Structures are given as C-alpha cells and as structure tokens.
Amino acid sequence: MGLHFYKRPFTHICIPFIIGIAIVLIYGAFSNSLILLGSLIIGCVYFWLFIGIQYGVFGYFLAYCLSFLLGSFVATVYIEGQTSIFQTGYKTGGILQGELIEVSTGKNLWNKAILNVNTIYAKDKTHHTNELILLYLSRELTYLQKGDEILVGAEVTKIKNKNNPGEFNAEYYWKSRGIETMAFVSPSEMTWVDSKSPSLLSSFFSYFSNYLNSALTDNLSGSDLAIAQALVLGDKSLLESDVKNAFTNTGAMHVLAVSGMHVGLILYLFLALFGFFPSFLSKKQATILIVLILWIYAIITGLSASVIRAVFMFTILALSQISSKQNDSLNTLFFSAFILLILNPFYLLDVGFQLSYLAMIGIFLFYPKIEKLIDIKPYIFKKLWQGTAIGFAAQLMTVGISLFYFHQFPNYFILSNLGLMFLSSLIMGLAIFLFVIKNIPILSNFIGILLGGSVYIMYWIIQKIEEIPGAVAYGYLLPFWMVILLGLLFIILILYSKSKKQLIIGYLFYFSLLLLIVFNRYRSLSSSELCVFNHNQFVATVKIRNKIYCFYKSRPDQVDKLKVLVESYSKLNPGEIIYFDINRKKITLLVKNKRFEIADQGGLIHLSIDKRKYDVLFKQNESINSKILMPWIHEGEGHLLMGGAFISKI
User: Fold this and answer.
1) Fewer CB in a 10 Å sphere around the end CB: N or C, the chain?
2) Structure letter (DSSP) for residue 527
3) Alpha carbon distances (Å) from 507 to 108, 114, 369, 486, 503
4) CA distance 55 to 34
5) Ramachandran assignment for 344, one of left (phi > 0), alpha (psi -120 to 50 degrees), beta (any other)
6) Neighbour tally for 617: CB within 10 Å
7) Which strands, in side-by-side order, build the sheet including 604-609?
8) List of long-range contacts for 435-439, beta carbons under 8 Å, 24+ apart
9) Which H or E run includes 422?
C-alpha cells in the first residue's frame, strides 16, 4: 500500500494537523497566535517555492511542519475566540436569559438541558453574550421545551470532575461540546418568558422526526422499541442500563451509536432500491437524492460528530463518482476529518469522533485482507462473512482506545459480530419500509411484527453471549502512549512488514506490549486498597483481592447513584461488590487475615484496618450548588477530598 503524497495528500497532512490541535487543547493556546500565523504564511511561501523544484524528504518534512503549525493555529484561534460566562459579566446573584436549544427528559430527579445565554442581568449592568451552559432542570420543569426563552437565577459553577476512580469524565465530555459551566435549576429559580416560533425548516424536521418516532412507537414497545430507536434514529433515551451493558459487554455497542455504519447501510439500501427504477431516475439523480436523504437523516439524529463525519465523507465519495473522478477512500476519510476539525477543533475530544474514525481506518486498511481469509461461495453466507469481517476490522483498530476509556474488553466480540451487520441491515431496511407504509394499517402491522422480531433476535443473541462465563474482562488501565504504540505497531505489521525478520521483530514488540497490559491488569486484580470517594454521600470501599466491601451512608433516593459510582470503580479494580449500610451502625469484618471495623457516629465515621486508624469527618450541606466538604483526617493531617478520592494501599 503506497503512501505517495500526490495520491493521498490528506493522509499525510491530517496526522500532524491533528497532533498540533491536540497539543494546544491539552497544554493551552500559544501566547501569540499572530506570530504563529506569520510563521505559517512565510513557511507556506517557502514551501510553494520548494515544491516547484523537487519533492524529496525535505519536502515531506516541510509539509508535516506546516500541517502541525496549521493545526496549532486553528486550535489557538478557536480557544481564544471562546469566552467563559464568568468573563462576560456574570457574578453570583446575576440573572441569565437565553433560549433552550436542547432538552432531554428521563427518569432521574434532574433533566438535562442546554441553554444558549444571550443576556446577563447583573446588579449594575446588562451584558450581551452568546454562551452555552448546561442546566439540570428539576422534575417539576418537564413542561419546558426546545425553543423556550427563560430566565434563570440559579448559581452557575464550572463543570469539574470529582476524580473518582473509573468515573465518567464529565469535564472532558462537555468541553468537547463547547460547554464549561452548569447550574441546577429549581422551579423558584426559573421564569418562563416566551416560546420561540420555530422556522419553517425547523418545523419540517420536527414533524419528520415525530413521524418517524411514531412509526416505531405504534408498532414496538419495551426494549425492542428502545433498541430500534437507538439503532435507526440515534435516540438512546429509552435504553435501560441493562440493555446498554449487554451491548457494551459483548462488543456490540457500535450498533446503538449512529455512525458511519448506519449511514453506509442507508446509502447501500437506497442505492439498491433506486436501482430498480433506472427509467425514472438516472444514476446521477439517484445519487444526489440519496445525499439529500443522508443529510436529512443527519439532522434528525442530532448532527453528532460521527454522523456528520460519515455523511460528509459519503457525500464526497458520491459526488466524486458522479464526476467520474477517481477517489481514494482513505484520503477522503482524512479530508473529512481535516475539514471538520478546521470548523471545530473540539471534535477531537469527542470519544465518538475518535472511535468512529479509527473504526473506518481499520475497515479501509484491514477489511480486504480479513475478507480474503475465508472464501465462501453461497451468496447469503458470503454476505454474512463480509459483514462480520467489517466488524472485526473495525474492532481491531479501536481496541486500544476502548481499553483506554472503558477499561474493559469483550472477550467474545467475534461471536457478537457474527451476522450482526446482516441483522443491522435487516432492521434498518424494515424500519425504512415501515416509515414509507406507516399509514397502511395491515401492511404496517405486518412489517412492525417483522421488525420487532428482528430486534428481539438481535438482543436475544447479545444476551446469550453476555451470559457466557468470562464474557467481559475488566481492570485494564492503559497510558495513552501505549494506545498510540499499539495502533502504529498493528498497522506496520499488517501493511508494511515484508520480510520474515521484520515480522518477528514486530510481533515481539506487539506481544511484549500485550504482556505488559495483562501484567498491569493482574496486578490490579490482586491489589488491596482503601478508597474514600469524593461524593455528596459517604461512600468508602475496602478492596481485598477479588472482593470489594462497600460501606455507605446515604439517603434512600441516592443509593442507586452511589452504586453506579462503585460499579465504575470496579471496572478499574475488578471484584465482587458487597454493600453495607452503616447508618448509625458498627460493622466488624475479618477477611484474608485482615480485620477492619467501621462505625458511624453522626458527622464522624471511624474506620480501622488492622492497626491503621482513620477518621472521616463528613459534612453535607443542603444547598444543591454548594461545595461538599469532606475533610479526611489521617494521623493528624487533614485531606480535603474536593480534588478527588482518597486512595491508600493496604
């Protein structure tokens, strides 16, 4: 596989461009972007003069340096163009006015919403701004809808991680969406002002989205409806945690995350459908119509980074085919990434964006080689194998980044991907047909039964694979450099190792890294430690080998939340979790020759492990927005847990 610059320019340009963006996002913007811009312009002039003479090793080096500088400059300008709400005149006690651009409802006490703030009313002055803020709306405010103009008087705080082991990185996630602040809003802290009349285009998309949703809700229910909505429309609001866990634990979660796979399936289905009507639609007309359908689909499913990437890439591929120009899939993929990151460098922080691109790289690089491993003649079985090979290729390239973020590996992902693409294609095809014939009762009921049966079979297979002993392995903790090295080594082994000596050396390095990963996991499994969590309820765990003893003091309505916290901890430090409610109790346990006691005395909790004694002074304020102070007293020294959990090896 050649990587000549003139054949795949964006394959060369995009990688240093991404590195430049990453360095700025991680380490902060350059102090003076004007100097960087001047250097970039001068460098481009010299590069242009040089490229006209000869394009050698020095030419490649220049191209990479300029791409790196461009990425750094784009990220710097984007960061400098953003302002925090605290820089626009907001002070505690101020009033925010803005439009709700996103509202999601669920079963929790608080519903998430995103407010586009346009005005800040301070005590002495009115400030006009354009900032996004995350709102947690009280359950009594479920009547609020997208487009509502509201006044908010709740206290605004920065989104910060609690830094508990294995916990969801909220700061990282919301930063990737351009949001850095949040507020909890009760009914007394909010005033409804007006409802913005949607534009004609917005009304069309809203009507279309409701139409598609009603087609599914009229014919499906329960987990079948939740899975179908997630797979077809990208709406995961109805998914229960056990359904999500089943797909995650079997390596099939990509089916429920609308991305390139779904866009590709829609493209394939409509190409096949329009192929039956060559006299009505020419190839060019059909392609343009399909591209339009793909962009409508992207808008309906929320314009996520992965969907935008996929639709944008397939648009370029389709238009290049119309123009009869040759195109390189890998170059097109990197070109789409280049354009998207110029528009919004924070896409790089989006986990879905990272997984989606790595999966597509894996498919482009590895799928042809994997598909040729087994020569299957019957058409149906051949299609099943091709779909499985696509899933396998995507999984190979994303395994490192998945371990880095989720700390688990689905041991039977090969089984779960067998025929998964076929079932996904079938479900997508039946859903599209159901949308078309929704208003024909008998036919829509019949298709609804087939669709529900297909979803049921998929979920049944996923559940059975999850029930196999050892379906998922927890406890993987990878540094990011190892993720990069694993990916590069795998690409080199598959594509560029030609001699026997190169293969042997490459595989030695690769398996050495795998052994290091397994060793780190074994050390985590056999470790023993005490962890006191940074949480608004008292939660502490004592992990001894493969057992996790969790002690908590909590309000009844908060127990489920703290259990999620401990389960996230167990993904990093695997073990069977045993819960103890210590409210006004004293508990003594003897495990593996270790004796530990814990006693609740109101605001003070005594804990001892063998001869080591700890006291936790726990103070919980009633205010929603107030900072929770949890001083940890250990041998006379106090440790505030605001910066993260307290962890001590025992």
Assistant:
1) N
2) -
3) 49, 48, 18, 11, 6
4) 29
5) beta
6) 13
7) 586-591, 594-601, 604-609, 612-617, 631-634, 637-640
8) 435/211, 435/212, 435/215, 438/211, 438/214, 438/215, 438/218
9) helix 420-436
Residue-range domain boundaries for the chain: 9-80, 85-197, 202-323+399-474, 480-525, 528-649
Say how far apart CA 209 and CA 97 lie, in whole Å.
Answer: 28
Q: Where are the beta strands (DSSP E) in 38-109?
A: 95-103
Inter-residue contact 145 to 202 (CB < 8 Å): no
Which runs of E-coded beta strand occur in 339-404? none
Residue 216 to residues 131, 181, 209, 252, Cα–Cα distance (Å):
36, 36, 11, 22
- Residue closest to 485 by CA, chosen among 515, 508, 510: 510
According to DSSP, the residues that pair with 157 across neighbouring strands are 182
How far is the CA of 315 from the CAs of 203, 247, 325, in angstroms? 25, 30, 14
- Work out whether strand 547-553 and strand 576-581 pair parallel, antiparallel, or are unpaired: parallel
Task: Tell me 626's DSSP state.
Answer: S
Query: Tokens in use for 271?
Result: 């190409």
CA-CA-CA-CA torsion sign (311, 317, 318, 320): positive
Q: Tokens 């995507």 belong to which residue?
A: 394
Burial of 374 (0-12, 13-18, 19+ CB in 10 A): exposed
Question: In this predicted structure, what is the pLDDT of residue 56?
Answer: 58
Q: How far is CA 193 from CA 53, 56, 412, 434, in A?
A: 65, 64, 53, 40
* Radius of gyration (C-alpha) of the chain in whole angstroms: 27
Terminal Cα-to-Cα distance of the chain (whole angstroms): 53
- Provide the token pair at 311: 């639709």
| Contact by Cβ (8 Å): 182, 134 | yes
Q: Which residue, 572, 522, 582, is CA-closest to 550?
A: 582
Phi, psi values for residue 104, rounded to 5°: -125, 135
The answer to whether residues 412 and 468 touch, using CB atoms and an 8 Å cutoff, is yes
pTM of the model: 0.78
Exposed e or buried b for every residue in 8-22, given b needs 16+ CB within 10 A? Answer: bbbbbbbbbbbebbb
Hey, what CATH topology would domain 85-197 get?
A: OB fold (Dihydrolipoamide Acetyltransferase, E2P) (2.40.50)
Residue type, 307: V
The residue written with tokens 């390596």 in the block is 251
Dihedral angle computed from the Cα positions of residues 627, 628, 629 and 634, in that order, rounded to the nearest 10 degrees: -140
* Residue from 604, 583, 466, 608 nearest 530 by CA: 608
Please check whether residue 644 is in contact with residue 638, taking contact to mean a CB–CB distance below 8 angstroms.
no
**Nearest CA-CA partner of 162 in 524, 531, 479, 408:** 531
Report the amino acid identity of residue 475: G
pLDDT along the chain (650 residues), means of 10: 62 84 74 56 59 58 79 83 72 84 74 89 82 88 86 87 84 82 88 80 76 87 88 79 84 72 73 72 78 81 70 76 67 85 86 82 82 79 76 80 85 76 82 86 89 91 88 84 77 66 73 83 81 84 87 82 87 89 84 80 78 69 42 49 74
CA–CA gap between residue 450 and residue 72 (Å, rounded)? 52
